[in-house]
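For practice. Supply one:
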Amino acid sequence: MIKFIDEAKIWVKAGDGGNGCVAFRREKYIPKGGPSGGNGGKGGDVIFRVKKDIHTLIDFHYRQHFKADKGRNGEGSNKEGKSGENLVIPVPVGTIISEIQDGNEVFLADLSKDKMEYIVAKGGVGGKGNASFKSSVNQAPRKATPGEKGEDKRLKLELKLLADVGIVGYPNSGKSTLISKVSSAKPKIADYPFTTLSPNLGVVNLGDFRSFVVADIPGLIEKASEGKGLGHKFLRHIERTKVLIHIIDLSVSDAVERYYNIRKELEKYSKNLYEKAEIIVGNKIDLEEAKENVKSLQKTFSEVYVISALTNQGVKELMEAVWRKVNEYRDKSDDGEI
């Protein structure tokens, strides 16, 4: 099983430009030929390119230093140095690139579509050969310039999952069970908090060409917006979703209170996240202790879906409702409304 890596720090260095050349024509019958030193070649750029087949940043866990080729030096006979090869680094869809400057992170790019490219470090320009300095007052210049240094940067890469639907809720509320029932995703499931230590992505296929991508986000707790528990590490993954499924564990005594606790954390973290369309779901209706909480939930919220992810009770109706909501937001997006 591939380990999910959603954050990495790396160093990149673009190629230096090649040096210019000092040379003179040495041809038969031309004893004092003019300057013929060529310019140096340009250094290679460092380029990030999105590749849809990559799903994590795990490769950067094993390699953190990347250097593009240098430009070649200029030569006599006005030969320009060959440019250095660009270094193309593949990254997954949803990669955010920031530069680390004096301990601060400066946003550079958000690579949200397949095949998108971003030049993160530009190669140095090649130096000028002495042929470039010939003039009416200096017919035989012996001057050439060195190539410019390529840019180097320390970067932070972050991955934001791209899913239509994000499932949120307290740890052990049934998120992983639900995604395992409605998609082909196979998350680790056990009856204790923080079983899910990385996001799980699954495709829900309802037939008739109706499908959407759902992300099971690790359980949130109070002060998650401040980084407590798994905190910021996973809240960012639901920022791109269109719809939230908020699962409430009906078997606990403070079910409704837990709902509001999570809502507070979403609001603290991001107003945009807080205002996303939300479908409220009460889970574990198959347990006897959940029966009393169902009444409380239905009194508190005007629209709520009650299910048992374990036994599939109410799950099909829930997925149909989610599809309608997702489709509604896709249409708005296509029309430019959001």
In short: The longest strand covers residues 104-111. The chain is about 20% helix and 25% strand.
